[in-house]
Amino acid sequence: MLEVSNIDTFYGKAQALWDVSLRVDEEEIVALIGANGAGKTTLLNTISGLLRPASGSVEFLGKKIDGLAPHSIVELGISHVPEGRKLFTDMTVRENLEMGAYPYHAWKQKEETLEHVYQIFPALKEREKQLSRTLSGGEQQMLAMGRGLMSRPKLCMFDEPSYGLAPILVVEAFRAIKSLREQGITILLIEQNVRRTLEIADRAYVLENGRVVLEGACDKLLQSDYVRKAYLGI
Ligand SMILES: Nc1ncnc2c1ncn2[C@@H]1O[C@H](COP(=O)(O)OP(=O)(O)OP(=O)(O)O)[C@@H](O)[C@H]1O
Ligand SMILES: [Mg+2]
Known about the structure:
Helix content is 39%, strand content 26%. The protein is an alpha/beta fold. The strands form 2 sheets. It has a 6-stranded mixed sheet with strand order 6-7-8-3-9-10, sandwiched between helices. The protein has a 4-stranded antiparallel sheet with strand order 2-1-4-5, covered by helices on one side. Strand 4 (55-60) and strand 5 (63-64) form a beta hairpin. Helix 3 (93-99) packs parallel to helix 7. The termini are far apart. Bound molecules: adenosine-5'-triphosphate (ATP) and magnesium ion (MG). Adenosine-5'-triphosphate binds next to strand 2 and helix 1.
């Protein structure tokens, strides 16, 4: 479904990604793990068109997408739920969700998608008319995820959805991600919560200093000495 091949990405003269390749197949959950500053967000931003790779390519459903504008990439079916939520704080919950439905095909099915998002996150329906800045951190995270679904994506990319959540809400966030996959949405997930992530994902890539240093099936990675020492603290 998604094929990232040998990309190098720079901020000005500073190189942040080095020869990174990654693949996501249909209906997989693929995780991206790595320490702060490893380049995880940079990789998602390169896929979603916010950054352009200096070399290498990104293909989605057989079509080259590097170089396309971010909105065109959303239209093709990739949704990016960014780090730090980036909500429209002076808009209501419902208005934030509607903003996610701007691609033409999604706008036509807006009401139906909205009902669907409310089924996944009932707390959002109860707070439909509330301004998003008055939501709790966990509710804001649900809203960011819900908004990401409003474009009816085929591939959803989540950048640290459990960040800053209380343990009980972390469980909720992971439950939501699992239920999305059951509904046929493919997921690329960045997470610091490495154990939980390796438990729900199918495959994972480990990024260090802008390079992929390890990749494989999650059950294998959970047993790897390297991952256990560096990321699970055992
Ligand atoms: N806008 C920017 N301008 C310059 N350098 C940047 C910019 N954004 C990120 N970087 C640098 O690129 C590298 C990768 O950053 P990135 O945000 O992709 O890391 P990350 O893996 O998402 O980290 P975290 O877990 O802290 O979110 C870091 O060295 C960072 O300082
Ligand atoms: Mg990041």
